[in-house]
Every structure is written in C-alpha cells, then in structure tokens.
Amino acid sequence: MCGRIALYTPPQRLARLLDAALAAGIDPEGRPSWNVGPQRTLFGVADDGGGRELDRYRWGLVPSWAKDPSISSRMFNARSETVASKPSFRSAFKRQRCLVPVDGFFEWDRRGEAKVPHYFTRLDGSPIVLAGLYEHWRDPAGGDDAPVLRTCTVLTTTPGPDMDAIHDRMPVILEASAFDLWLTARDDEREAIQALCAPAAAGTLAHHPVDSRVGNVRNDGPELIEAVAA
Length: 230
Prior knowledge:
Layout: E1 5-7, H1 11-17, E2 21-22, E3 33-36, E4 41-47, E5 52-59, E6 77-79, H2 90-95, E7 97-102, E8 104-109, E9 116-122, E10 128-137, E11 149-157, E12 170-171, H3 179-184, H4 190-195, E13 205-209
Parallel strand pairs: 2-5, 5-11, 6-11
Antiparallel strand pairs: 1-3, 1-8, 4-5, 7-10, 8-9, 9-13, 10-11, 11-12
C-alpha cells in the first residue's frame, strides 16, 4: 500500500523534470507538504495528445461512471496485477495513465512491538515518479455544466529489495526511459506497459525511520522526514 507521501518540490521544477507544461492556474512555487494523505492534492502529468501537462489531481480515483465521489476513499491505490481487469480501473489503465511525481513516500514497519514509519526517497536524490491513473468526473445531477473533478490513483506492486521486508507492497516507480510508453502506449502495447509495473531495482531507494507523528495528516513540516532512532 502507498497511503502517505511528501511533496515539496515546486511544481515548476517538477514540470521541467518531466518535460511538461504547467496547467492554467498552477502556482509555479506551489505549497509544500511533508504529509499528504488520500483525498488531498497530488500533481499528475498526463498527455491527452497535445503534449505533457502537469495539473492538480485529488488522490483517490473516481471512475467516470460513479454516482458520487465517495468511492474515492478506497481507490487511492490500484494493484497492478488486477488493474487491467478490475472495473474500477480498467478504463483508466487502457487510456488514462499519468505520472505522479513525489519527493518520497512513507511505509510502516510492523514487525516489532510498535509500528515504525519509514521515509523512502530515491537514492540519487531526484523526485520519485510513480505510475498513476486518472479520471475526470462530473456530478450526474449537474449535467454537462457540472464542474470537472480530476482524480488519480497510484499503482502498487510486490516489494523490491530496497523495501527491506518493511511492507508487502510498494508503489510502481517509473524511470525516465519509461515515461513516454506509460503515457502514450496504444492498446496493442498492453503487455509492454504491464511489464513496467515491476518492483524497483535494488539501489533505487533509500529509507530511514521517522517520527510517528507522520501518522496523523494534521501534522506537517520538514521535521516529519528527518531520521530518528529506530
């Protein structure tokens, strides 16, 4: 599971790193957060045919056919093994994939007497780019004039060696060489994009234990990602 992330790199820098334009209304400097949970805002990069664009997405997918957005509370992750067949995700997996850039993510080590949160980052210091799906939803009661709600979910897979057995799932991490394929693959390239949903290679991630206050989304600040004694 991936249910908590840190996002403090300014949107304008994320856009440059991902060769994307900023969507209208995006503050280039953004508002950093070191403790983002589901139902809050992430940035996603999609390409609908006019080039890559970085925009805001609420974390928790709302399929276009949903009657109301409450379904999103349990749709912030999608298992890569079943994403192509599960009704909630298969349409987005087919044609609405996105890149979700973050600075790091948290997972809880449950092997001891107490749960210990760990903060994971890329070993090379660059932002982590997660494999995501997105949807556009309108309230059926409002018709075509209803505002569009942009939502996303993060794909997960089995853990790679850098997880150190802390958790039995990890987010799907994409390397730069895979960005174009993930965003623009055709229907006949389904096997190729499914192959991208593999555990990250050894040496991709580093991690350290952090303060348990990160478990409450009301807490925020750079101190939440600082290493503490295990």
